[in-house]
Amino acid sequence: MDLFLVPDNPVNTVFVSTNGVAHYQTETPRCGINRTTVLTRPTDTDDGLVAEIAWRRYHWQHPTLVRTKLLANCRNSITGWRPLAEFLFKRSPRKTYKSRYFVADDGQEYRWKFEKNEQAVVLTRTSDNEEFARYERGLNKEGLYAGERKTRLHIRAECTIDYDLLLITFIATEQKRRDRAEFVLYQKGDQDPFGDGAGDS
Fold first, then answer.
1. If 0-12 CB within 10 Å is exposed, 13-18 middle and 19+ buried, where does residue 42 land?
2. How many CB atoms lie within 10 A of CB 168?
3. What is the Cα–Cα distance from 74 to 142, expressed in whole angstroms?
4. Which residues face 109 on adjacent strands?
5. Four-residue CA torsion sign, 166, 172, 174, 175
6. Bridge-partner residues for 121, per DSSP?
7. Residue-wise over 97-121: b if at least 16 C-beta within 10 A, else e?
8. Where is each DUF6593 domain found (predicted)?
9. pLDDT in tens, the chain (201 residues)
C-alpha cells in the first residue's frame, strides 16, 4: 500500500492512497511550542480516534507523551498518557543515534532508521533487517498522482504490523527528525524556528 502525505507534513496531513481514498488524518495546532497531534481514521462513528501525541518541542527535560487504545495497559491508568520513549525507544543515548525501536503486536522488534542522508525513513525488522515500509519522495507512475514527485509511505504487502501502530511510530519518528533539524536552524540563528514544524510541499 502507498500512502501519500498531502501536504508533506506528518502532523498536519491526510494519508491518501493511490486511488485517492483518505485512510488517516493528522491535525495539530499551528502555533505554540507544546502542541498535541490527533491521529484519526475517517469514519461515520466515534471510533475514528487512533492516538494523540503531546509534543514537548525544545523542552528536552519534559518527555513527549502519547495516548492510544493500543497502549491501554500503560503505567498511568488515570490519564492514559504514556511517555513516547517507553515504547518507541533509542538503543543509545547519543544524540547522533537516530534509529527508533518498538515491539509490534506480533511480538517482533522493529526499527525506523534513516537512509540517503535522512531523505528516506525505513522500517525494518531488527532480527533479520527485512524491510517492511519506506517513506521517501519519488516519481509516481500510476494512480491519482501519476507523473508527480510526492512523498509517500510505502507499506509492503508482507507487513503484518497493525497499521495504526505503524502510523503512530512513523509520525513520531519523522516529526522528531524534523524538529531536530529545525532546532539546528534555530541554533544557527533562524528568525522563525517555531514555525509550523515542517514544509508543506
1. exposed
2. 25
3. 42
4. 103
5. positive
6. 114, 135
7. ebbbbbebeeeeebbbbbeeeeeeb
8. 8-179
9. 999 999 999 999 999 999 999 999 999 987 766 789 999 998 766 678 999 999 976 555 678 999 998 876 555 445 688 999 988 998 876 655 689 999 999 999 999 999 877 789 999 999 999 999 999 999 988 888 988 999 999 999 999 999 999 999 999 999 988 887 775 555 566 544 444 444 333
**Spatial separation of the C-alpha atoms in residues 155 and 133, rounded to whole Å:** 4
Cβ atoms 175, 12 nearer than 8 A: no
3-state secondary structure of 171: helix
**Cell numbers that stand for 81 in this block:** 498518557
Cell numbers found for residue 145: 498522482
28 three-class SS: coil
Could you give all domains of the chain from N- to C-terminal order, each with its CATH number? 2-187 (2.40.160)
Residue type (1 letter), 169: T
> What's the whole-model pTM score?
0.84
For 28, the grid coordinates are 495539530
Cell of residue 12, nine digits: 498536519
Amino acid identity for residue 56 in this structure: R
